[in-house]
Structure formats: C-alpha cells, structure tokens
Design a protein that fits this description.
about 290 residues, disordered N terminus, eight-stranded mixed beta sheet, single chain, 8 strands
C-alpha cells in the first residue's frame, strides 16, 4: 500500500501459504539487538512505523509486517481476523527463528498483540499497546450498528476526500510528513479493483474485531504491558455510540484489568501515537529497559 522511502522490505511465504511482506532492520548477521515486532492497525500497513523505527533501530531489531490482506502481503479472505492474525504473528516468529520478542501493536494491532500474548505468553518478553482496540466494549446492538456501517457496499461509498478526512482524524495535529500515507490511500480509492479489496478487508476485520472481544480475558495476561494512549484520541472511544465516554476512561478501564500494566497518557496527541508521539515512545523504549 505504501512504498518505503528508507527500509528494505522482505517477503516470506508461511506454511499456510500466506505471503507476508515485512521490514527488518537487522539482516544477517547483525541480529544481536532485542527484537521489536510491530503490528499496525486496521487498513494501514507497516509504513506507519517508519518514524518510530528510525528512532529506535540502533537499539532494537525492528520487524514491522503488513498483516494479511494489508499492504503488500498476500492472503485469502479467511486469513483476515483477529485470531488468524495472531496465528500469523506466531507463524512469522517461527519462520524467522524468533524465540522471544517484544510486541508492539497499534489500534487493531494492539488487539492482535493481546491475542498473541494470551495464546503464547512465553514468546513475548514485553507488550507495548498503542491506543489498542479491545478496551472499548460494545453491546450487541452497538455491534450490529458498526457492522452495518462497515458493510462493503457502505464503505465503497466513501469518496477520496472522505478517506483523507478520516485519516487526518487519527491525529491531534496532522503532520505533513504523513502525506505519503494519505496519497497511497487516495491511489487505492482511484483503482476499482484495489478499492474493492480494501473495503472487503476493512469489513471482514471490523466484524472479527467485534466478534472476538478480549476485555474479559485481559486479567489473564501474564506479560508486562506498557500502554500509550493519546488524550485527544478521536477514534477511541466511538463518538457516535459513546459520546460521553472519554479516551482516558476507556484506557483506564482496560489497564485496570491487566495485572501488570503501566499506563502513559500523552497530551495533545491523537490516535496515531507511533507517528505523532514517536519521540516520547522512542525515549521510553531507549531509557526504560522495558523491551530488553
């Protein structure tokens, strides 16, 4: 979806025939640093980690993948979904001979990271959750409304200008250096075939996100978690369904359930923390020792 201006991209075909595209900042033989495995959110790809990777790559081997059916990864429709994504993370780790990693997930990728930790805690040293999905809960009626909004035929009504607006709503102050991502989404909108596939992926993933909640399982997380959340997040909570709920309340509710959670609230920051608050997150990664 978004071409890398800096980092080399690799591809690997997993035993389940899913082809995963990923960045890896430490090719053979320079693989001594701890591994930071980064999972993007819904409708994004690995390029949303560019800025943070550039700040921490001297201390971490950064691996950022395109989830199945996102970016340059190739997968059948049934490979989309939270449980399937978590299985893909584990399969990728096995294929790359990674015994233990520090996981970092953003938004839907945070939910995938949680699922991965619950499935295989011994494979994760530390988990970083950036504005994770899964902390906000929905009633069955609310789920039905969201599924209707994310129906493919509804998504295909989005104009290029609306797509741009939605992307910019991920930020408290939209940065010009994210224009490459917006331009890539506009290019997808202009291709009938690419936009059809994009809308299919969004719909399937949203349905899976709603049908595979993890809130009640958060208390079972046995790995230390560091949670970053922008106080000015405009994506979580959903402003239509939960107009009186604040971002702070959502993340505090989730962190309260996790036995070993360390919460960092970032002022004047929106949903795309790994870009808008890259300096703060990088400083924590480089000075706290949490990822080692």
């Amino acid at each position: 979806m978004m071409a890398s201006p800096v980092f080399q991209k690799y591809q690997i075909t997993l035993p389940n025939q899913i082809t995963i595209s990923y960045f890896d900042t430490a090719p053979e033989p320079e693989r001594r640093n701890p591994v930071l495995l980064m999972i993007h959110g819904l409708g994004n790809d690995a390029s949303v980690w560019y800025k943070l990777i550039g700040l921490v790559r001297s201390h971490y081997r950064c691996i950022a993948l395109d989830l199945p059916s996102h970016g340059d990864s190739i997968a059948p429709a049934q490979a989309c979904g939270i449980a399937s994504f978590a299985e893909t993370i584990e399969a990728l780790m096995h294929a790359l001979h990674l015994k233990q990693v520090t996981l970092m997930g953003h938004s839907m990728g945070g939910l995938v990271a949680i699922k991965t930790v619950l499935n295989n805690p011994k494979a994760v040293h530390h988990c970083f959750l950036l504005a994770p999905a899964g902390f906000e809960t929905f009633t069955e009626r609310e789920k039905a409304w969201l599924k209707a909004i994310y129906a493919v035929w509804m998504l295909k009504k989005m104009s290029a200008s609306r797509i741009v607006q939605q992307m910019k709503e991920n930020f408290f102050q939209y940065p010009a250096d994210f224009d490459f991502a917006v331009a890539a989404l506009v290019a997808i909108r202009e291709s009938e075939e690419a936009f059809e596939a994009y809308c299919q992926t969004l719909s399937v993933c949203m349905n899976s996100l709603l049908d595979e909640p993890v809130f009640d399982a958060l208390s079972s997380i046995s790995v230390p978690c560091t949670v970053f959340f922008g106080i000015e997040d405009r994506i979580i909570p959903n402003k239509v369904l939960h107009p009186t709920l604040t971002a702070v309340k959502v993340v505090e509710n989730g962190c309260r359930e996790i036995p070993d959670a360390d919460l960092h609230l970032i002022p004047e920051c929106g949903h795309m923390l790994q870009w808008e608050a890259a300096d703060q997150i990088a400083d924590f990664l480089l000075t706290s020792g949490a990822g080692y």
